[in-house]
Amino acid sequence: AVMTRAAQRETLANEQEAALIAEEGLRTARAEQATARRAHEAEVVVLRQAAAAAVEALTAEEGARRAAVAAVAAEAESLKERLTEAEAAHASDEKTAKSRAVKRITVQM
């Protein structure tokens, strides 16, 4: 089957149109791919920022917890010192009271 010149031109025009359509489709697919890649990159940035913020919050929370533990330990140490002082004062008071009682008994004899 021999094609006429008109048929050849029409076939060529159809092929060129198909090539242009395919090229446009490829450009569209590439643009969509680039858009998806940018969206993914933006999502990665947001997730990294969220992770960094979470680490920062945990670090701050850990610091606050350590400060609270240190404050409680300091308070406990202070209370132990006050208790020791109170016990020493009480023992001293008891000694003084015994000493006075002994003196009174001695004086009465």
TrEMBL record:
This is Uncharacterized protein. Residues 85-109 are annotated as: Disordered. Residues 85-97 have a biased composition (Basic and acidic residues).
